[in-house]
Input
Amino acid sequence: MAVNKNALIRYKTIDKCLQNKMRDWTLNDLIEACSDALYDFEGRDVNVSTRTVQLDIQLMRSDKLGYNAPIEVYNRKYYMYTEEAYSITNIPLTENDMNVLSETMDMLKQFQDFSLFDEFKGVFNKLEDKIYTERHKKPAIIHLDKNTDLKGLELLDELYQAILKEVVIEILYQSFKAIVPSTFKFHPHLLKEFNNRWFLVGQREKSEKIVTLALDRIMGIDYDFTTHYKTSTLDADSYYKNTIGVTVLGKNQLQNVFFKVNKSNAPYVTTKPFHSSQEKVEEHDDGSVTFKIKVHHNFELERLLLGFGESLEVTSPRSLRRKMRYKFREAGKLYERD
Output
């Protein structure tokens, strides 16, 4: 069944609305959301009728598009998905979808030698591998490190669109330390990935401070079209220049960190530097190597250094060396009990 662009936009919009459990959705709410979405994509007012959205819902419920969406009405007024994790984006790709993706990949590969696409070469290979293995039902040739059970991944596209369209959002958020969740207005500026976890970077309403929120702690989001969006001046490369991970600290936390790695592990650290500032300071007679990096002393740095266990020794600064010594002593106590 052929589906035009506007219809796809409406289906995806309805899908996003019904995934949002923070509010109840009437038919008029869905009509308004579809109209807003089409205006954003088309740049002009598109008249979405009640009948059109009703037919969209009927089609989404059916198997004509392969969705079989579990959409029901409760209290004779509100629409909802009866399956908590349902989304039309979870539906397997059709043969037609695979053909479109293959043609798109063929086109993109023509440009892969241009410098503009240098950072995407690995992405091309991974995407091509995924298309091939899905179509031919063969095991993947390229294996990606991923955590599909991580909470919050379903919000990625919605948050991306909010940043793209410069829309303020209202977030229901509960940190690991909070007993109950809190709700606040947020100006989203950047999506950041680190160690297979995703983070939303931006500013709270009436605050200039840059805040980082873990997507797996976001319980729900809604749009706030009445609050003026604060345009971002954040340059990600500069902001994270001196940071390992996502915890950016002040200048007083920026330090030269010296560490010695034993002979067997030095090649790994040499070929995969901890940070872009990494320098080889000295090669010792026993084959060990001393390196230097200039970074913020944050939690992620400590965890990275601790991960090398007895094969790495922090030699400077003294404060970090003491911190490492304390953590290893506490860890050692766990193994003293048999």
